[in-house]
Amino acid sequence: MAPPEEAPGTGMPLTVNLKLKYGWPFPDMKDPPLSFKVKSSIIIPLVGTFSKILLKWCNSINGHNIEQLQELVGNRPAGVPLVTVSNHYSCIDDPTLWGLLRWRELWSAQAMRWSPAAHDIAFTRRLYNWFFSSGKCVPIIRGLGVYQEAMDFLIERLQAGQWVHIFPEGKVNMSMEHMRLKWGVGRLVYESSICPIVLPFYHIGMDTILPNRSPYIPRVGKTVTVVVGEPMDFKQLVSEMKEKQEDPATARKIITDRIQDELKRLRGKAEELHEKMLQQRNR
């Protein structure tokens, strides 16, 4: 695939438009129609309830600093955007991990996250297109890079003070290897006109609830460890890079590298705490 054409006078690629079977699934989100609000207000609480039941009632959580996630999702100042980032070990990570939230966030279509989802998996049928867009999943074409309609849309959501979750590994990491993060998360942080709070977290054990092999049936009685980090503030760094007119690709890499370092640290802590919990259960 040829690289995208550059926008005149900017040195930056033109945004790549999605070619979706059923078209772009979202209305103008500055003034969304009542029909979109209604369907989201139905789908999001239903999925949130399923997530809470599966994660916390049918399985057990070994959580650390979960309150930080809950507070930033539910109580951050109005107009302040949030980007959460985590590893991706199971197809059921999203939405099940949001069972960590309180009921008032789980049942709020306004508070719930926006998140990119693979267009060739989540948007291949008309029913899927309706369901996943109602649940605030945004169709993204993996391999087209950071300049595509989905990324522009997510930046707009951040500029509106909303929450975006992203799996920066770019796929379900079934081998659980140390992967180089994709630079999309760097673009979200760097190009939002309001610099978002970035909250990283790492989880272990979601692949035991839904293994990455058939039969794809959720399990019960498993343990999931979740370690939430501290908020990362990129305001000063972004301001300095924009002031000296840093190359956008370099800026994205610098931001992504810092997030990757923090996820690596959280991974070590999560693996240690998860192993201790399993040892205690097996005694």
From TrEMBL:
Keywords: Acyltransferase, Coiled coil, Lipid metabolism, Membrane, Mitochondrion, Mitochondrion inner membrane, Mitochondrion outer membrane, Transferase. Its main location: mitochondrion. Residues 256-283 form a coiled coil. It catalyses: 1'-[1,2-diacyl-sn-glycero-3-phospho],3'-[1-acyl-sn-glycero-3-phospho]-glycerol + a 1,2-diacyl-sn-glycero-3-phosphocholine = a cardiolipin + a 1-acyl-sn-glycero-3-phosphocholine; 1,2-di-(9Z-octadecenoyl)-sn-glycero-3-phosphocholine + 1-hexadecanoyl-sn-glycero-3-phosphocholine = 1-hexadecanoyl-2-(9Z-octadecenoyl)-sn-glycero-3-phosphocholine + 1-(9Z-octadecenoyl)-sn-glycero-3-phosphocholine. GO terms for cellular component: mitochondrial inner membrane; mitochondrial outer membrane. GO terms for molecular function: 1-acylglycerophosphocholine O-acyltransferase activity. It is a peripheral membrane protein. InterPro entries: Plipid/glycerol_acylTrfase, Tafazzin. It is found in: Mitochondrion inner membrane; Mitochondrion outer membrane. GO terms for biological process: cardiolipin acyl-chain remodeling; inner mitochondrial membrane organization. The keyword Cell inner membrane does not apply. Residues 82-206 form the Phospholipid/glycerol acyltransferase domain. Belongs to the taffazin family. This is Tafazzin family protein. It comes from Homarus americanus. The gene is TAZ-L.
